[in-house]
Amino acid sequence: MRHVGLTLSFAAALLATTACSKKPPAELPPPPAQQPVEAPTATDTGTVQQGPVPGSKEDFLQRAGSDRVFFDTDQYNIDDEDRATLDRQAAWLARYPNVHITVEGHCDERGTREYNLALGERRANAAKNYLVNAGVATARISVVSYGKERPAVPGDDESAWAQNRRAVTVLLN
User: Looking at domain 74-151+162-173, what is its CATH homologous superfamily?
Assistant: First the structure.
């Protein structure tokens, strides 16, 4: 009898624990694969090349200034600061025509998951369209929205939210 009572207590506790748990979100696409950065190489004269390896992520970040553009609340328009960043990204991509990219759209934590996935996609497409208009081939760019699922900065204040409303250019090769 005691065994039955313990089993029922355990089952009730397990049921109460699982009933309160949140549903896990639907599976998101995996992040884009990152290419390893090569070490500096020696030139024919035996000197080591200084600075980032041409065509690397570090080279991209140095020349473009940033891999991301930011948006106002509930917006996906490209402002003057975004245009300057995207122009530098387009210039770098013109130098390396074999590099493909993914533009990730992100949102802050406010709003529903569905709303933020749609807004993140509009943000990623706004950045993609700007790059295409600046001369980057459409076939080289893919977009993905992570909505509010991958914040860059944790927090629930305007400072964190402003950094999470973004489109990020990720190099694929």
Answer: OmpA-like domain (3.30.1330.60)
